[in-house]
Hints:
A: about 300 residues; 10-stranded mixed beta sheet; B: about 250 residues; alpha/beta; 6-stranded mixed beta sheet
Amino acid sequence: MPKMDAVQLQLLKEVADLHDVPEGAYNLRANGKSVGRNTTANIDITTKTEGSGIDIHIKDGTKNESVHIPVVLSESGLKETVYNDFFVGENCDVLIVAGCGIDNCGTQDSEHDGIHRFFIGKNSRIRYVEKHYGSGDGSGKRILDPVTEVHMEEGSTMEMEMVQIKGVDSTHRSTIAELKADAKLIIRERLMTHGQQEAASVYKVTLDGDGSSADVVSRSVARDSSYQKLDLCIIGNGACSGHTECDSIIMDKGRILAVPSLEANNIDAALVHEAAIGKIAGEQLIKLMTLGLTEAEAEEQIINGFLK
Amino acid sequence: MLELKNIRFGAEAEGRAVEIIRDISLTINDSKFVVITGPNGGGKSTLAKLIAGIEQPTSGQILFNGTDITNMSITDRARLGIGFAFQQPVRFKGLTVLDLLRIAAGKTLTVSEACQYLSEVGLCAKDYISREVNASLSGGELKRIEIATVLARNVKLAVFDEPEAGIDLWSFKNLIRIFEEMRKSDSDRTVIVISHQERILNIADEIIVLTDGCVSKHGPKEEILPEIIGSSFAKGACPKIEEGDSENA
């Protein structure tokens, strides 16, 4: 294991479920520096020659391998923008785990902006997991503004799981995807904000190829006085199918703005949007209370289930 | 033992005060299977909710095994051993059948323990255990899961509010079987079922008829059932079911 302190190790556990060095390819970044890297015969990771970040090259036909690229920040006042590009060959089946944990005990804001670009080759299948987490009791903010760009070749599939449950003060996440024929994109976002936090999540998915499809589902909870803006847009330029769903729970003085939009530019584009915002239904609380939970316990169970 | 003393409950409907329960006093002894029936709007579901603590009486007193529970919360009553099955089971996005059974049991159930409760209500556990309790389940499935959550709690008093409401014919036959099994079991659990169904009334030790917020009849099944049979609140099942049963007999 590279040299990391207890705080960094805890962050690593939260964002990547890692207790130890991951198997397969990885790049660990702590406080602005790469602190460990491993490449495999099929997956190469190189430092960008210009600017900050890494290039990840995955060879054609790479199957059942994984890449972990977690980032941890425990130094107050550190701000960084990192560009990571994934070049995935054809006919691959790979798991990519990214994520960022910030611990800020100081007074200055800490910020990590990860710009991830994916170029996914024909008929490849990628599962991408990205978790964001913040901790520390300093007055400095924990800020994450990730950008994810996905370019999908014919017949490729990408499943994205984006999770931000705790501790990030401000986030503006932007996800852009372009799909060629028969490409398939599945996104599951889970977001919870509390305190005075603000989060914006913007998706723009363009279905260019015939037979392409996207299913973008965002589940979010806004507690305390937090605010969320969820902007989910699907554009259908081919004979495609797209579905977006924004399902949100508001609590306390939480506020949510959901801005769904669909644009069909082809007669055979079939696009659907669903959006719902509301507080926890009283009967759900009552049901769990009749099972012996207190109101607060019932609320916690409902939220945990909703965001699971 | 459950004792209701001079229970009244009023609510506001269309701008005017309406008394839904008017001075009900009754005692339900331990280990009894009691069915409460009566015309629609007679206050049956309200009475069930008053027992579970979902509604608070305007006046009167409720005692459970000698303890005054009138001002107790839903949670505290549940912890004392009162279970309640909803007429319209609640759906939860994200919570699975196993999650709900674990919450009900109040402990970490093993999958095989959870399966036991599901098989008691006639569901094949492997098909259901990891399903979300959401709109993908049918009314009959939800109803049986609802009953399983009450069974998993191992309560002293189980209240079922119109278990037959909103279920398909096939599920109805299974439902009757579940209640027959419950009646036969040697547990000392007291069961109160709100129902209009003759076949559920037929399982009862005692029948209570509620009319206009008052107890109009209360006594052993043998005495009450003949008096009310054929009325709108002691209905036979669908003729097709009866037919099927006589063919199977």
